[in-house]
Amino acid sequence: MYPRLLHVGSGSDGTEDSDSSAEREQTNSSESDGNIPKRTRLTRASLRLSQSSQGKAMGWIMTSQITSIISQWDFFFFSWLLPQDESPPLTPTGNAPSSESELDISSPNASHDESLAKDPALRDSDKDLSHRPKRRRCHETYNFNMKCPTPGCNSLGHLTGKHERHFAVSGCPLYHNLSADECKVKATTREKHEEEAKVQEESNRHATRHQTPTSRQTRYKEQVTEMRKGRNSGLSKEQKEKYMEHRQSHGNTREPLLENITSEYDLELFRKAQARASEDLERLRIQGQITEGSNMIKTILFGRYELDTWYHSPYPEEYARLGRLYVCEFCLKYMKSQTILRRHMAKCVWKHPPGDEVYRKGAISVFEVDGKKNKIYCQNLCLLAKLFLDHKTLYYDVEPFLFYVMTEADNTGCHLVGYFSKEKNSFLNYNVSCILTMPQYMRQGYGKMLIDFSYLLSKVEEKVGSPERPLSDLGLISYRSYWKEVLLRYMYNFQGKEISIKEISQETAVNPVDIVSTLQSLQMLKYWKGKHLVLKRQDLIDEWKSKETKRGSNNKTIDPSSLKWTPPKGT
C-alpha cells in the first residue's frame, strides 16, 4: 500500500504557533505529554490569499473564527504543497533544492497528487489535513533499468499475455517470433479452452460409472487424428530456405521457426507448455526465489556431457552466480572452473557411489547409500537432482533416507544413470520419496527400471508400496506407463475366471488405489448391478504383446535373481 503524499501534523519541530506565549507554552506542554491539539481547517480563500501575498501577509483565515500567525517554516511548507507559477518547488529552508535528494521523487503517487493540486476541481484543501499520514519516501520502487537480453526488444509484453513487461528470454514475445498483441490473443483463447475443459470435467465427474467415451470425446479424438495426419509430410524447398535465412539472420537470439514442422495441434500444445513454464518462472521471480541473470545455474559439465538445467537449485551463492557448474560424476563434488575439475579428477579415488552394491546384472549396478553414513554425497546428489526436478524440497536433511543409485559401468568407472530415495521408516508405506533419471539417459528405459526396482524391494519386504506425492510431470508419465504394463502383463498371464484387485496388489506390490486409477484410465473397470467388475480387454492385451515382441529381449529389465539385499533393521 503506497503512502499518501501530504502530511500536516503538529510535533516538536514547531509546526503551529499561536499569538501569545501562553498558548505556545500550552502547546509545547501538550506535545510533550503526547496529546496532539486539534488543528483548524483551512479554506481555499485563505490559501489563495497566502499565495498572493508572497510572504508579506502571513495571516490565514480560519473557519473556526480563530486567527493565528503561521511561522515562516509553515508558510514555505504549505507553499511547497500548493501549485506554483513556473517557480521551482521550495525546500523547508526556503531555498530551491540543490539536488534531487532534497525532493521526494520516488513516491509512485507523486504525479497523482500533483494533478490533484493543479486541477481546482480536484483540490481537497477544504478537507481536514490533520489526519493525513506523514510524508515519507517509498522504497518499493520498480527497477526499470532491467532490460530483456533479446536484441531489439523493448521489454514490453509477455509470452503469457498476462503481464505488461518482461525481463527474461522465457517471457519475450520477440524471441518466440510473436508480438505482444498476438500473445494476448493466444492467452484469451487458452483461457476460453481451459474454461470449457473445466465445465466438461465437472460434467464427467458425475458420470464416473460410465467408462465408455462420450460422443464429445470421440469427436475430439477424431479431430486430433485428422489434424495430425500431415505432420510428417516434410517441408517444401521454399520453407527450408525461409527457415535457413531466419537462422542465419538471428542465430541463437531468436527461436527457430516452428510452423509446418509438426501439426497445428502439437504446435499449440508446445506453445501452451511454453506459456505455462514462462508463467511459473515469472511467479518465482516475483516471489524472489530467482532473479534474472543471477543465481541461476544454466549449464553443468557432468562427465563427458554438458547438460542444460531445468530448474533452480539452492547451491551456495558463490557457485550459483557463475551460471555454469563443473561436477565430478563420481563423488558429485561441484567446482567453479574446468581447471579445478581437471585437478580434482586427477586426485579423485572414487569410481562408484559409496555404500553397498545390492544389484548387478551386466553393466547395470545399484548401490544402497545411507544418508546418515554418507551425508555429503547424498546432499550433493539432492542438489544435483533439484536442477531437473520441480517439486523437490529435500536438500540437506538426508539422514532419515536411503538412496538407491543406479549406475552403468565401463572401463573408466560406474557412471550415474539415476536414483531414487525412500524413507527408512515410512508410516504410509511409500517406497519412493524422490526419483530421477539423468537427462542423458532419459527415454531409454532406465526410469522404468528404477520404478521396477523400487517395487522389487517392496516385494522382498512383503509390503505394498506407492510413490510419494506430488509426482513431477515426467514422473507421473513414467509411473502410469509402468502400472499399465504391469496390469496388462498380469491380465495376459491370468488364467482364472474371477479376478480381484487385492490379489493383483499382493502379486505386484502396487497399491490398490494406483491399480484402480490405472484400470479406470484403461476403461477396464465397470460398475454393473451394484458391483465393480474388471473387464479383460483383449485388444489392449494384444497391442501390448505385439509391442513386447517387437521390442525383443534387452537388458533394460530388472532380474530379481540378481538382487542381493535384505531389508535394513533398526535404522
TrEMBL record:
<keyword id="KW-0863">Zinc-finger</keyword>
<dbReference type="Pfam" id="PF01530">
    <property type="entry name" value="zf-C2HC"/>
</dbReference>
<feature type="region of interest" description="Disordered">
    <location>
        <begin position="546"/>
        <end position="571"/>
    </location>
</feature>
<dbReference type="InterPro" id="IPR036388">
    <property type="entry name" value="WH-like_DNA-bd_sf"/>
</dbReference>
<dbReference type="GO" id="GO:0010485">
    <property type="term" value="F:histone H4 acetyltransferase activity"/>
</dbReference>
<feature type="compositionally biased region" description="Polar residues">
    <location>
        <begin position="92"/>
        <end position="110"/>
    </location>
</feature>
<feature type="active site" description="Proton donor/acceptor">
    <location>
        <position position="468"/>
    </location>
</feature>
<keyword id="KW-0235">DNA replication</keyword>
<dbReference type="GO" id="GO:0045935">
    <property type="term" value="P:positive regulation of nucleobase-containing compound metabolic process"/>
</dbReference>
<keyword id="KW-0156">Chromatin regulator</keyword>
<dbReference type="InterPro" id="IPR050603">
    <property type="entry name" value="MYST_HAT"/>
</dbReference>
<dbReference type="InterPro" id="IPR002515">
    <property type="entry name" value="Znf_C2H2C"/>
</dbReference>
<feature type="compositionally biased region" description="Basic and acidic residues">
    <location>
        <begin position="219"/>
        <end position="229"/>
    </location>
</feature>
<dbReference type="GO" id="GO:0006357">
    <property type="term" value="P:regulation of transcription by RNA polymerase II"/>
</dbReference>
<dbReference type="GO" id="GO:0003712">
    <property type="term" value="F:transcription coregulator activity"/>
</dbReference>
<feature type="compositionally biased region" description="Basic and acidic residues">
    <location>
        <begin position="189"/>
        <end position="205"/>
    </location>
</feature>
<keyword id="KW-0539">Nucleus</keyword>
<keyword id="KW-0007">Acetylation</keyword>
<feature type="region of interest" description="Disordered">
    <location>
        <begin position="1"/>
        <end position="54"/>
    </location>
</feature>
<dbReference type="GO" id="GO:0036408">
    <property type="term" value="F:histone H3K14 acetyltransferase activity"/>
</dbReference>
<keyword id="KW-0227">DNA damage</keyword>
<dbReference type="GO" id="GO:0003682">
    <property type="term" value="F:chromatin binding"/>
</dbReference>
<dbReference type="GO" id="GO:0006281">
    <property type="term" value="P:DNA repair"/>
</dbReference>
<keyword id="KW-0479">Metal-binding</keyword>
<keyword id="KW-0804">Transcription</keyword>
<dbReference type="Pfam" id="PF01853">
    <property type="entry name" value="MOZ_SAS"/>
</dbReference>
<feature type="compositionally biased region" description="Low complexity">
    <location>
        <begin position="43"/>
        <end position="54"/>
    </location>
</feature>
<feature type="region of interest" description="Disordered">
    <location>
        <begin position="88"/>
        <end position="134"/>
    </location>
</feature>
<dbReference type="GO" id="GO:0045815">
    <property type="term" value="P:transcription initiation-coupled chromatin remodeling"/>
</dbReference>
<dbReference type="GO" id="GO:0000775">
    <property type="term" value="C:chromosome, centromeric region"/>
</dbReference>
<dbReference type="GO" id="GO:0005829">
    <property type="term" value="C:cytosol"/>
</dbReference>
<keyword id="KW-0832">Ubl conjugation</keyword>
<keyword id="KW-0012">Acyltransferase</keyword>
<feature type="compositionally biased region" description="Basic and acidic residues">
    <location>
        <begin position="111"/>
        <end position="131"/>
    </location>
</feature>
<dbReference type="GO" id="GO:0008270">
    <property type="term" value="F:zinc ion binding"/>
</dbReference>
<feature type="region of interest" description="Disordered">
    <location>
        <begin position="189"/>
        <end position="241"/>
    </location>
</feature>
<keyword id="KW-0137">Centromere</keyword>
<dbReference type="InterPro" id="IPR016181">
    <property type="entry name" value="Acyl_CoA_acyltransferase"/>
</dbReference>
<keyword id="KW-0963">Cytoplasm</keyword>
<dbReference type="GO" id="GO:1902035">
    <property type="term" value="P:positive regulation of hematopoietic stem cell proliferation"/>
</dbReference>
<keyword id="KW-0808">Transferase</keyword>
<dbReference type="GO" id="GO:0006260">
    <property type="term" value="P:DNA replication"/>
</dbReference>
